[in-house]
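Retry 2 of 3 after timeout on previous attempt. Resubmitting structure tokens to design endpoint.
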């Protein structure tokens, strides 16, 4: 059986689900890929735990529990204060750990040095974190078209979106347009407007449900959707810069400098214009959704009226308009998605890397 050293950066919602699934999935990993994932390092923003022989199941579950109960304590939750992320990978190299996988389940752009060191060392890299893949082409372009780097979890919350795109490209189809409702958070908020709920009320409800980032402007600004579209387009082989994708923010620039509480109150000012747009869509048998659209050279993300019964109105989805799927686009969509499905996509990528090891 192949023992695969795994370094995990990030122990938030997705990171914890991943650790739990690695423990729960031991038999599946053996049966389907003849491997065991030996988690040698887990790091969060301040701390880490290192075990070159691999943490046992009890230690992994203890980390899950420690991170879940966070808050209150100023002590590093995982144990030791961590070195910088590149030094974490270097420590694995120095320990002669060959054939390792670096997993990035953070939400920061600080992990690039670790990714580059892992690639140099011949390690596989799996990301749920979009930021390293969504910088300028000069920063991120070299990460595309490399089977050593997998990132299914970055788009679609675990649905096989990247896998479908790779299949289309592998079979010689030509992608002409990509389209999708790529944010579950914005899908939820906008679907509440369908029945006349005010935008500010829908936003507050999404926040209470834990669907938004701590500062909901990170969702409403559209940049996260732009990153997903950029990743899809670059995977399709298009050399895109972030500026090639126009973004319609759902909040005005004048509200950018408020603190979060002030912004939540001020969001009422956005109710009338969004109500008018939702009403206009409704009068035409349509609903308002936050839609991402991309062609080879340019794209846009923003509000669009779509038919009320369409998958576009009712699913988190990506549709692939291609030469073979010209009459009716190939659609991947679901209403599921979250930390568990995202972590499962990370594991799927890890298994693929193990199966294809040495093929790059
Ligand atoms: N949640 C979802 O449904 C979903 C779906 C698709 C994709 N994603 C993506 O998956 C990633 C993780 O999401 P999440 O919900 O788990 O985020 P999260 O709860 O904010 O967790 C982020 C984790 O990264 C850690 N971290 C921050 N900076 C770090 C650094 N420099 N080195 C190592 N660790 C660092 C944080 O440490 P602390 O714990 O110390 O703060 C935290 O443990 C994000 O990029 C997100 O966009 C999430």
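Retry 2 succeeded. Sequence:
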């Amino acid at each position: 059986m192949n023992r695969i050293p795994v370094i995990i950066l990030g122990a938030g919602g997705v990171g914890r689900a991943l650790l739990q699934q690695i423990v729960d999935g031991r038999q599946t990993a053996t049966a389907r890929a003849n491997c065991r994932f030996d988690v040698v390092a887990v790091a969060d923003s301040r701390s880490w735990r290192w075990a070159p022989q691999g943490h046992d199941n009890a230690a992994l579950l203890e980390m899950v529990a420690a991170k879940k109960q966070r808050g209150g304590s100023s002590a590093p939750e995982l144990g030791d204060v961590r070195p910088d992320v590149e030094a974490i990978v270097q420590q694995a190299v120095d320990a002669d750990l060959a054939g390792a996988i670096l997993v990035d389940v953070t939400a920061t752009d600080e992990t690039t040095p670790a990714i580059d060191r892992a690639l140099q060392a011949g390690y596989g890299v799996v990301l749920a974190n979009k930021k390293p893949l969504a910088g300028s082409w000069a920063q991120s372009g070299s990460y595309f078209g490399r089977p050593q780097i997998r990132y299914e979890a970055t788009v679609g919350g675990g649905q096989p979106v990247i896998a479908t795109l790779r299949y289309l490209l592998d079979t010689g189809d030509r992608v002409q347009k990509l389209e999708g409702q790529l944010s579950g958070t914005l899908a939820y908020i906008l679907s509440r407007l369908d029945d006349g709920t005010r935008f500010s009320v829908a936003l507050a409800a999404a926040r209470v449900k834990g669907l938004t980032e701590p500062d909901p402007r990170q969702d409403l600004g559209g940049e996260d959707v732009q990153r997903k579209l950029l990743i899809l387009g670059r995977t399709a082989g298009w050399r895109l810069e972030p500026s090639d994708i126009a973004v319609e923010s759902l909040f005005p620039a004048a509200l950018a400098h408020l603190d979060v509480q002030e912004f939540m109150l001020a969001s009422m000012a956005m109710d009338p214009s969004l109500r008018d747009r939702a009403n206009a869509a409704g009068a035409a048998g349509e609903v308002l959704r936050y839609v991402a659209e991309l062609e080879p050279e340019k794209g846009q993300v923003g509000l669009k009226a779509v038919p009320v019964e369409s998958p576009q109105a009712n699913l988190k989805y990506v549709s692939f308009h291609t030469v073979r799927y010209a009459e009716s686009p190939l659609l991947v969509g679901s209403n599921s998605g979250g930390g568990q499905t995202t972590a499962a996509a990370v594991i799927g990528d890890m298994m693929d890397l193990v199966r294809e090891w040495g093929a790059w």
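Attempt log closed. The longest helix spans residues 339-355.
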